Amino acid sequence: QVQLVESGGGLVQTGGSLRLSCEASGRTFSMYAMGWFRQVPGKEREFVATITWIARTYYADSVKGRFTISRDNAKSTVYLQMTSLKPEDTAVYYCAADSRKSAGGTLEATDVGSWGQGTQVTVSS
User: Fold this and answer.
1) Using CA atoms, how far apart are residues 48 and 89, in angstroms rounded to an integer?
2) How does pLDDT run across 95-113, given as a tens digit for each residue?
């Protein structure tokens, strides 16, 4: 089981930028897809972005053009660079690791093997 340690999050103004980081340990990082989800009260945890083991990326429509997911395999770290932030981006953001080795394509919540602890992102207007 992979352990995920998140950093980042906090309060940012509308239009600002923020970068989330998630460091993984416990297995071969480069062979697993990683992703980010977010959740607001009263709603299901929703997909934000994923990056596969071969570095293909996928984004939710709501964040396309504004968020960028990347990974540094040498550091076993995945990042979510968020720009042009909007109040509706306010949520708890969760780092996620795919449970399937060498999986490709999108990442569903049901395929997540490990979750980060969650970090609050608040975008003020």
Assistant:
1) 10
2) 999 998 877 778 999 999 9
